[in-house]
Amino acid sequence: MNTLPADPSLIDSRQAAWRLLVTLGLVVLGNSSMYIVSVVLPVVQAEFGVGRADASLPYTLMMISLGLGGLLTGRMADRHGLMPVLWVGALAVCCGFVWAGLSGSIWAFGLAHALMGFVGSSSTFAPLMADTALWWNRRRGIAVAICASGNYIAGTIWPPLVQRGIETLGWRQTYILLGIFCGVGMFLLATRMRQRPPLVTLTPTSANAPVLDRSRPFGLKPSVAQGLLCVAGVACCVAMSMPQVHIVAYCTDLGFGAARGAEMLSLMLASGIVSRLVFGVISDRIGGIRTLLLGSMLQGVALLMFLPFDGLVPLYLVSAMFGLFQGGIVPAYAIIIREHFDPKEAGARVGAVIMATLLGMALGGWMSGWVFDLTGSYHAAFLNGIAWNLLNLCIASWLFWRVRQAG
């Protein structure tokens, strides 16, 4: 393991590009569990004989654990480097999938996903986003977007494959095979992450970015600004989780079947890949806070479109629209941290905001199931998501206004 920082000349280099490609593969494998739990939700609910809220609990436990684990794995990566952290993550992903496949109750199934989130997926989320930001200056926005898009590539690849596995092998056998494949793949790719990142520089992310007082981000105390970003992260992801977690169950309730729902989820996340790349280019031009504001407005529009349309073709179109509109929101937080806060604190602050977004996904996944159980319909759950999105939009608008006032 190379304990010395890489030479600063390697920033924006070919080596940085190869590292980004390996990072993308790690994210695709390590985040597989985040989306297939939505695919198995109907069959798990039927097998264990629980309600929709209880069947959503494994997703909630996984996302809470993923958020909390990001703080731990981020600090471990700062101290020991990425490779050993990723090796531990690979073991957790493998064991978690196998445990879930052998589980005899919804609680055992949920705890297996909590293990995968806390140690497995968390090792390939916030630490890799923070690491990527340190290897790029001129193209930092698009580089972070590529890293973050691995999450959506996972959501595009795994749901239809797992649905096919459920239909042919059964969900338990599918889980076990997926755990072995992802765990071994992560272990092998982790061997390419020995090198420490270069020392942090103060080069701005955007060519048009003004010189900012990083001791008072947005003219606020750093703790206050951090807190607002965390609240915004929770709010946007409560809204984001509604379609992502429940689209398969929603399609099943409408009579279209789980396979159509899995296809919609895959389409939604495939569109999210395009969205994250496009928003990465946009953030390099207009900065992180404007990108967050734009993404929040567009996500709200997409959520509104779910209310009047429940036909098969319209749901495919709205799912694609939702993916295109919301994919740039989460990476924007990492860019905002690098633009407005002390770069020496970037790893911890990015981890904290990412933890908040994951807690939002966890809360939103459970809350949507709870609202469904209360009302017997997803209409109120979509309205709940829209309300949370408005909170995010208000915070983003106020921070943008403060930036304009300071300029």
TrEMBL record:
Keywords, comma-separated and alphabetical: Membrane, Transmembrane, Transmembrane helix
Domain Major facilitator superfamily (MFS) profile: 18-404
UniProt feature coiled coil, ranges: none
Keyword Nucleotide-binding attached: no
InterPro entries xref list: MFS, MFS_dom, MFS_trans_sf, Proton-linked_MCT
Spans through the membrane: 20-44, 56-74, 81-100, 106-130, 142-161, 173-190, 224-242, 262-279, 291-309, 315-336, 348-372, 378-401
Domain of life, source organism: Bacteria
Protein name, per record: MFS transporter
Taxonomic source organism: Limnohabitans lacus
